[in-house]
Amino acid sequence: MKKTLILLALCLMGIGASAQHLGTEYRLKKVIPVAGRQGIAIDKDYYYVSDTRALYKYDKQGNLVMKNDQPFNHPELANHFGDIDIYNGEIYTGNEKFEFGQGHNISVDVYDAKTLKWKRTIPWVAESGQVECSGLAIDREKNMVWMSDWVDSRYVYCYSLETGMYYTKMQCRPTPYWCQGIFIADGKMLFAADDGESTFGIPDNVYVADISNVPYTGLKDGVQVSVEDFKAVKKPGKVAAGAMAGRVNLFREMSDFRRAGEIEGLSVDPTNDDLVVLNNRGNQILLGMPIGPFTEEGYTKEIHELYVYEKIK
Q1: What b/e string do you get for 111-135 counting C-beta neighbours within 10 Å, with b at 16 or more?
Q2: CATH number at residue 164
Q3: Total tally of structural domains belonging to the chain
Q4: Up-side HSE of residue 66: CA atoms within 13 Å toward CB?
Q5: Which among 77, 133, 84, 134 is positioned nearest to 110, based on CA atoms?
Q6: Torsion 59-63-64-65 (CA) sign
Q7: Closest C-alpha among 161, 166, 210 to residue 189
Q8: High-pLDDT (> 70) share of the chain, %
Q9: Which residues contact 273 (CB under 8 A, 6 or more apart)?
Q10: How many CA atoms lie within 13 Å of 135's alpha carbon, on the beta-carbon side?
Q11: Is the pLDDT at 8 greater than 50, yes or no?
Q12: Which phi and psi (to 5°) does residue 296 adopt?
C-alpha cells in the first residue's frame, strides 16, 4: 500500500511538471539574448527558438546547445519560420515563403527536438481562407494545432493532429492585429500582437481568448471568389463551412520590454509556469520585414531577447 501511494504521488508530480497554466499577474525575472527573431517553445530542459531561417536550442541559462541553419525540407518553397511549439518531443513550425506582407506555400512542418532535423509535413488547406502563418500552437488537451495569420489576424485556423485535416477557424473579436504568435493552456489561447509602435515607444500587447469549446465545421462545396485583373472571379470549389467566434481580451501590456519593438512568439515553461516572450528591438520594420536599425539611438543591428516572467498569481 505504501509503495502504491508513493508511485501515485510520483505520477501526480510528473503530471504537474508537464502541465502549463496561465496566471493573472507576472513579474519580469530575467532577459536572455538569443539568435532567433521569430518564436519560442519550451520543454522541461530547453528553450527552442526559431529564427526566420533557422532553429536553435538553448539551455535555460541561455547557452546555445544546438542549431540547424538549413532547416527547410524544400528551401525553394519556404524561407520563413513563425512562432513554434513543442509536443511529445517534436517541434511544430509554421513554414512559408514570406515576401513583404504576403505568405505562400504554407505548411506545418515537424522537427525532432533532439536533433532539430525535419521529420514530416502537415499540409495547409488554402480553402480555409488563411493567407499567412505567423505562428502556431498545440492544444494538448484536444490534440489540435492552431495557426495564426499576420496578414489577416481576424482568424486563427485549427487542424486535427490525429487526422492532419482542417477542423475549423475562429474569428477573433476584436482583432489582435498583426498577430505574431500564439500559445494554448487551460483552454485559453494567448495572442502576441505587434500592435504597438516602436517609432513612438508604444508597447505591444498580449491578448487572451477562451477556446474550451471548439465545434467542427470543416469544408463544404461552395463558390470560391478571387480577384483577377481587378475583377471578381467566381468558380465552384471547397470553402470553409463555418467558423466559431472568440471574444478577445487584454492579457498583458508589454511595457517592461527594454525598448518597444516587435513582439514575436510566446510560451509557458512546463516546469514552473514562467511566461516567456520573444521581443526584437532596435530595427525598423516595414510590412513584417526588417529594413535597418535605429542608428540615431546607437543601434547597429537588431537585438533578440527572451523575456522570462515569473507567475505571481
Answers
A1: bebeebebeeebebbebbebbbbbb
A2: 2.40.128.630
A3: 1
A4: 12
A5: 84
A6: negative
A7: 210
A8: 94
A9: 20, 21, 22, 23, 311
A10: 35
A11: no
A12: -65, -20
pLDDT of 290 reads 77
Q: What is the pTM of this model?
A: 0.91
Distance CA(262)–CA(253), nearest Å, equals 13
Q: 51 near 63, Cβ under 8 Å? A: no
Q: Is position 303 within any domain?
A: no
Report residue 17 as a C-alpha cell. 511538471
The answer to whether 117 touches 111, Cβ cutoff 8 Å, is yes
Answer yes or no: are the C-beta atoms of 281 and 260 closer than 8 Å: yes
Kindly write down the DSSP assignment for every residue of 260-301, as one continuous string: --EEEEEEE-TTT--EEEEEEESEEEETTEEEEE-GGGT-SS
Whole-number average pLDDT of the chain: 92
Whether residue 243 is contained in a domain is answered as yes
CA 224 remoteness from chain centre: 28
| 17 located within any domain | no
Question: E strands within 35-89?
Answer: 39-42, 46-51, 54-59, 64-68, 80-87
In Å, what is the CA distance from 83 to each residue of 10, 42, 94, 146, 225? Answer: 33, 12, 7, 11, 30
105 within domain boundaries: yes
Domain that holds residue 102: 46-263
